[in-house]
Input
Amino acid sequence: MVSKEQIYNWLEEVSDPEIPVLSVIDLGVVRDAQIIDGDWLITITPTYSGCPAMKTMEEDILSKLKDKGIDSAKVEMVLAPAWSTDWLSENGRVKLHEYGIAPPEHEVDKSVLFAEPTVVPCPKCHSRNTRMVSQFGSTACKALYQCNDCQEPFDYFKCLK
Amino acid sequence: MKNEALFRYLLRLGDDSLILGQRLAEWCGHGPILEEDIAMTNISLDLIGQAMSLLDYAGVIEGKDRNCDKLGLLRYEKEYVNVLLVEQPNGDFGDTIMRQFLFDAFRKPLYERLVNSSDKQLAAIADKSLKETRYHLKHSSEWVIRLGDGTEESHERVQNSLDTLWRYADELFYTDEVEAKLTVEGILPDLSGIKAEWESTVKYVFSEATLEIPVNNWKFEGGRKGRHSEHFGHLLSELQYMQRAYPNMEW
Output
C-alpha cells in the first residue's frame, strides 16, 4: 500500500516546466492526494488563471505516477482556496534564489501609481539598490528587475496575495 | 438547465474576458517596446485563463456538454454578450491602454464583491481573478497618467482615446433581469456601489493625467444583447478560424 507521504515524495521529482528548479511540491500547487474509489486523486491548483504550464504539470504528474506503478491516478484542478505566493515552500524560496530568480517578498507591490515599488534584493550581488523594469515578465508569475550596482537583469517571482 | 440566469451572467463575464484577451493578444510581436509587448500578452493570458474558468463553469450550469472551447470558439456573433468596449480595435497604444483602464477600474470592484457570492465556484473564480486584476489596474492606470501627463503629443493622443472610448464605458454597468434574478437568489451580492467606486477611480486617475472627461453624453450599448459593432465579425473570424477550419482539433 502506497502512502500519501510516498506520493508526495514522488511528486518532488515533478518539476515546474517553466522554472525547472522548482518541483510542484515546492511551488505549492499540490493541494491533496487521496484515494477515491480505489484510485489516487491528486488535487492541484493553478498559480495564475491562464498559466499554460498547468496542463503540462498535470500530464507530468500522471506520467510520474505511472512510472512508479500507479496507472489509474487522476488529477483534479480546484480554484479555492486561491493559490498565493505564501504557498511556495521555504525550500522553494532557497532554490529560486540559487537559480538566480528573486523569491517573492512577503508583501504585494502596493505602490499606488508612481510610488516606489517593492524593494527586491539582487539574487547575484544581494544589493538592495535595484529597480523594477516591468511588472510583467517572461511568465505570468514573474516581474522584470535590474540591479543598479552589478547591472544584472533578473526575474522576480512576484508576490501574489 | 440548472439556472439560466447564472448561465447568462457567466457568459457576460466570460465573454468580456475572452474578447479583451483576444484583442490584447493581437499586440503580440507589435508592442511599442519589448516590456509592453510582454505586459499586454501577460494580461491577455490572465484574461483568457479567467474566461476559461468562467465559460467552463457556464457549460456546467447549462448542462449541454459545452466546455470553454465550445462556448468560446463555436458560438455565432449574436450569441456573444460581451460589452462593446472590449471589442473595440486596438488602435494605437494609447487607445489600448485607455480601453484597458476603463475596464480594469470596473473589474476590480466587481470581483471584490463577487468573492462574497453564495455560489462557491463563482466566488472562487472571482478570488483567483481579483489577485490578477489588481496588477492589471495598476499597470493601465500608471500608463494613462504617464501618457496624459507626458508630452504634448502623448497628451493629445490619449485625450482622443478617452473621447472615443468614453461613450462605451456606461455599458459596463448594464443590468437587466439576469442580475436582478441572481440578486434575489443571493448569488450576486449587492453590486450597486461599483459605479461610484469606478467613477472615483477614473476621476482620480484622469485628474493626475490632466485629462478631461468628455461632456458628450452619447452612449453606445448593445453587446449584452448580442448586438455588436462592425469590428466584431473580423475579430471572431480570427478567434474561431482553427476550430472552424479543423473541427474538434486539439492543441
Remarks:
- Chain B touches chain A at residues 21, 35-36, 38-39, 42-43, 45-50, 52-53, 120-121, 123-125, 127-129, 131-132, 134-135, 138-139, 141-142, 145, 205, 208 (CB under 8 Å).
- The domain at 4-245 of chain B is CATH 1.20.1260.10 (Ferritin).
- Chain B is about 65% helix and 0% strand.
